Amino acid sequence: MFANIPAPASDEIIDLMARSSNDERAFKVDLTVGVYKDSNDNTLLMKAVKEADQLLAKAGRNKSYVGSKGDLEYVQLLQELVLANQSVNGYISGVQTAGGSGGLRAILDVIKLANPDAKIWVSDPTYANHIPTIIAAGLAYEEYPFIDHKTMMLDEQGMFNRLEKLGKNDVVLLHGSCHNPSGLRLTSQHWQQIAQLSNSTHFLPLIDTAYQGFADGLTEDAAGLLTVANTVERLALCVSCSKNFGVYSDRVGAAYILSPTEEEANTVQAQLAIMSKTTYWVPPSNGAEIVKTILKTPALKKMWSDELSQINVKIKGIRAKLCAAFRQHSGDNYFDYILSQEGMFAMLPASEEQMELLRVDYGVYGLNNGRINLASIPEQDIDYLVTSVLAVTRA
Ligand code: PLP
């Protein structure tokens, strides 16, 4: 049965993490994986998450099945968070999923059912798992221009020239905030333009929100999504709580679709739940219980959003220090692009070969496409990182 199956491509991030941990040099900087670490290089366990976990343990809840749609109170509370407590025209159907990844897959399955000829447009570049998930769902994909590799800024003209040519069979996958891997910002004007284009060309916007609170704040980071939600008739949204609650391994997320009628919304919700039902039957509930407890307990919600603000301040500080160091060591302001961006990630203007040189010669580990996780840079290593990058990219 399995003798002739092809081996899948290996996972770049997992491979690089392994290479970095096997690197026996005393000095190395691992900026590969997309998790937020504390100053001791440990994945941060937020205080609010710890307290919610303890509250739940004390309450002695049982571990019964939650149903394929998941816990609808959690789904509603997360929807309110993601939409910054604003209401939108139309009907939103939602289900709990295993992470944002599960949410994306549920949405793609429903798109495939609704229109097998749909094509999913992803930004070039995009999050490493977007394209494999689209392929696994049996849908076609293409890339729209996003980053200008010379300036490392948004290729605004390229992006809009492409989007304005799309039509009703097209789905445009956008990142709600903090684009992974580029960190590039879409302004409120860009979001308005996207929303209006969706209305005039009838492409479906599919927004992946995985970093709410990592750019300018919980409410501010919802602004782009709200602009689209208030303009278009239909919208798909997948949400990850992995990063902003730091509950990566608990697999906490959701999928939502905005529809013009209640009837459509109910059918869509039932179909969204089929992905869970036919893959793992019901979504995992431990992490969703924690997130729900935080969102419905005012003191915990405040504790959590304060912690998130501190993360945000720290990342902004790293961006500023990195830019200052690049200015100092390069004598120019090319790397100021890092300051105009948002979230945990930035891309270095380096080829795959140069990223490999950084690993081999300097023990600096980033992804092949140049992505580095800023939140993982120890402050004392900023100068080392900057001089290594300059040595490799400007040799
Ligand atoms: N979407 C984006 C844009 C991401 O960057 C990530 C993780 O890196 C995910 C989704 C995956 O989220 P989750 O771990 O909740 O499945």
TrEMBL record:
Location of the Aminotransferase class I/classII large domain: 28-388
InterPro entries per UniProt: Aminotransferase_I/II_large (IPR004839), Asp_trans (IPR000796), PyrdxlP-dep_Trfase (IPR015424), PyrdxlP-dep_Trfase_major (IPR015421), PyrdxlP-dep_Trfase_small (IPR015422)
Keywords of the record: Aminotransferase, Pyridoxal phosphate, Transferase
Alphabetical GO biological process terms: L-phenylalanine biosynthetic process from chorismate via phenylpyruvate
Keyword Plastid in record: no
Gene Ontology terms: cellular component: cytosol
Protein's UniProt keywords contain Nucleotide-binding: no
EC number(s) given by UniProt: 2.6.1.57
UniProt GO MF annotations: identical protein binding; L-aspartate:2-oxoglutarate aminotransferase activity; L-tyrosine-2-oxoglutarate transaminase activity; pyridoxal phosphate binding
Cofactor(s) recorded in Swiss-Prot or TrEMBL: pyridoxal 5'-phosphate
NCBIfam families: PRK09257.1 (NF006719)
Similarity-based family: Belongs to the class-I pyridoxal-phosphate-dependent aminotransferase family.
Oligomeric and partner information: Homodimer.
Protein name from the UniProt record: Aromatic-amino-acid transaminase
Provenance organism: Colwellia psychrerythraea (Vibrio psychroerythus)
